[in-house]
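Aim 2 progress update. The chain analyzed this quarter is reproduced below.
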Amino acid sequence: MKMSQATQGFLFTLRADGYSLATIDLYNYVLATLAGFLNDPEVQAIQAGDLTRYFAYLRTEYIPNRKNGSNAPLSGSTLQNHWKGIRTFFKWASDELSLRQRPDAKLKLPPNNPKIIQPLGEEDVKALLGAAEYTRTAATNGRKPFKMQSRTGFRDSALILVLLDTGIRAGEAGRLNVGDVDLEGGEIFISPFGSYQRKTKSRVLPIGKATRKALWRYLTNRPETDKDDPLFLSESGRRLEHDAIRHLLVGLGEKAGVKKCHPHRLRHTFAIEFLRNGGDVFTLQMLLGHSSLEMVQTYAKLAKIDAKNIHRKASPADKWRL
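Predicted structure tokens:
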């Protein structure tokens, strides 16, 4: 079976298994790039050397076609995404196409030098909220410069505070419905994506007074809502999803003079401030919905907190001197 044909069956399986659309699109891109490089071979004919050549090509010859026009070499995390897509595909192909031997069996995970985590400061967040509430300063002949309240100010402020106060991902914020918010109890319910909770873990997260107030103000200024309506809406009345949230925050960052403003910086800020203010790594892991402590320990290092010491303090055996 040709690789392009097998890819369609593979993507169908991912949809049936509840993978996110973003992951499906990513794996489709990865496999299409690989099939193009190998001239769409029979899956059974692909050898380990073909995959080695492919990764050498990605590192040295491949020219990315990015929306921002950049043709910089692929990052370590992007190469790892290619590796994950290829590994997942051949795992599927091994079962569905009865491959005698997986060509990816000894394919090593490309190294990655992660970007430096840069949380936002208090002044950054205040600047973002100011940019969300009001339009840019306007000046006309014979009048003093002035600002007007933004048409989407209530929504944008509520979105910023939800992301900052809970540390949820942009995709999770985009999937929130009105009924997921309990203003009286001060909680937000995060539902899992798909049936296997691969990335989003089902959890109930507390929200503070400022976030509750912002959500109340936003919801009371919206037309009457049903519990199944999207919480965050675009100006055209559609659900505000991951990419739209990212573009919104980038724009607000430019307006506020906050560089590199994106949803994950608010997630990083929540995590680090949580630890700096006395939170523990295990609670943070639950709040963020991580499967392991690996990323949480990175936050702990940045917050100058020793995860091992926290573990010792939390251990009943040590605390009770058993």
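Residues 76-96 form the longest helix (21 residues). The chain is about 50% helix and 5% strand. These observations will guide the mutagenesis experiments scheduled for the next reporting period.
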